[in-house]
DNA sequence: CGTGTGCTTGATTTGTATCAACCTGAGTGG
DNA sequence: CCACTCAGGTTGATACAAATCAAGCACACG
């Protein structure tokens, strides 16, 4: 699985998989044409660091396919993941030129990049982009605040249940299958990455996954493939309001 | 100190204390005039709840004076503060009509409110407001992510040191006094509120404040008035990069 | 077949929560 | 004016959840 196996992507915005969710979602066809001119794709292998915290950033980008993480690291090596970047998520901050976090590909990732200058120019001229970016940023802020509750107040067991629930919910919303019955998810993260996301150690993550399995809240096939027989039960274990809170 | 003692505020935007920092910071005088027409002030007493989570929100607002908190509460009563609202901070989310968090005044607070509909209309017409709001939201997102690191990975002692450092830094940036020597801060929060912000119990907060005092990192006069003899020492205790990281 | 990465499980330690008592200062009312 | 109350805070003893230290398993890969 070397770099050369990754497809040399060249795609029309019209049939882009994230066309209706990304920062360009609201663009008219003429605006899209302008974006199309300044965009370029980049591929990253699983495990590769896309951006180092502190680095000069002269582009912004959307995740097209794959999953990346946003992490902060303290001097002594303690790490905290502060965001999970899924297809359509936006990377980079207009108006700032150095990265605040490490961005790492946890699967093979394809990004749709824009050089920062032209993108900022376009943003100031086409309100559709700025407006969509505001909307996406507000969503991320809500997600970050939900995560603050998890990090500050939830038990290890609740943290794991919450993570599984969130991943399952996202999968369901992406694939649009609203299965009443059991849900099936593939965890996109290693135990260590989960630990970094949840503010735990990898041992605790492992133990709590085992415990949830033992108690029948989830069942596992291999280390990544999870079946959720009863989603409401999982939400209870997560300590969330049972009403589901689909604010979207 | 009843409601009637609070001044009936009526102010020109031109000499508003948050004119250059709030959502209206970038507005031209004609835009400001329009805003002036749709704005109104509201006052809240210390301790009063400004907005309940889940409530219908038909206005957005800026904090003019005072301090408010944003908190989330779990069914069993566990609470996590997810934001501290200082003068110029924005409350409410254009494009959503129910509140996601409780907003509470921790001091007497004056808010500059706009009915949501007219504000959203103005936003779609004047890019200056939308642009400034994006900028503020991105800043809040960064702050939330910094807090995620604190909640997930810092020790109780580091959490307290971080909180004091952040409050001190903000005070210094507001009053523009760049004192080389000792800094003086008044904590705007009770021990319990600090605990809710830091993901601790109030007992642990109290103990760690005592410990930092005992070790000479801070000194206390009363329960709220803090003197910081050596700010770099405090940053070390906070576990932060010592370079200060003034990204602003 | 050996090596290594990701993961699990066990034993022990430790930092923080919990339970509980008491202190302090401000406000209240007799 | 003093006794009372009460909210906010401190401090101590103990319990417990998660971290740490440690061993070993399972599977992929050269």
UniProtKB/TrEMBL annotation, chains A, B:
SMART domains: cNMP (SM00100), HTH_CRP (SM00419). PROSITE patterns: CNMP_BINDING_3, HTH_CRP_1, HTH_CRP_2. Residues 23-140 form the Cyclic nucleotide-binding domain. The keyword DNA damage does not apply. GO terms for cellular component: cytosol. GO terms for molecular function: DNA binding; DNA-binding transcription factor activity. This is Transcriptional regulator. It comes from Fuscovulum blasticum DSM 2131.
């Amino acid at each position: 699985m070397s770099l050369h196996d990754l497809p040399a992507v060249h795609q029309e915005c019209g049939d882009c998989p994230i066309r209706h969710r990304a920062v360009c979602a609201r663009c008219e066809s003429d605006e899209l044409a302008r974006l199309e001119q300044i965009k370029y794709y980049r591929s990253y292998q699983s495990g590769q660091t896309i951006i180092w915290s502190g680095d000069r950033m002269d582009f912004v980008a959307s995740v097209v396919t794959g999953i990346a993480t946003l992490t902060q690291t303290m001097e002594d090596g303690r790490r905290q993941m502060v965001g999970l970047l899924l297809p359509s998520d936006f990377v980079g901050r207009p108006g700032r030129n150095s990265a605040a976090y490490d961005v790492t590909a946890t699967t093979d990732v394809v990004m749709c990049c824009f050089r920062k200058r032209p993108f900022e120019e376009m943003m100031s001229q086409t309100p559709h982009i700025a407006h969509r970016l505001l909307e996406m940023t507000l969503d991320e802020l809500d997600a970050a605040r939900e995560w603050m509750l998890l990090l500050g107040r939830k038990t290890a067991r609740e943290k794991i249940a919450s993570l599984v629930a969130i991943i399952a919910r996202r999968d369901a919303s992406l694939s649009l299958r609203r299965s009443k019955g059991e849900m099936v998810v593939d965890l996109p993260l290693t135990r260590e990455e989960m630990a970094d996301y949840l503010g735990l150690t990898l041992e605790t993550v492992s133990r709590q996954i085992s415990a949830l399995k033992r108690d029948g809240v989830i069942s596992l096939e291999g280390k990544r493939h999870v079946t959720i027989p009863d989603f409401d039960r999982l939400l209870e274990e997560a300590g969330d309001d049972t009403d589901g809170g689909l604010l979207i």
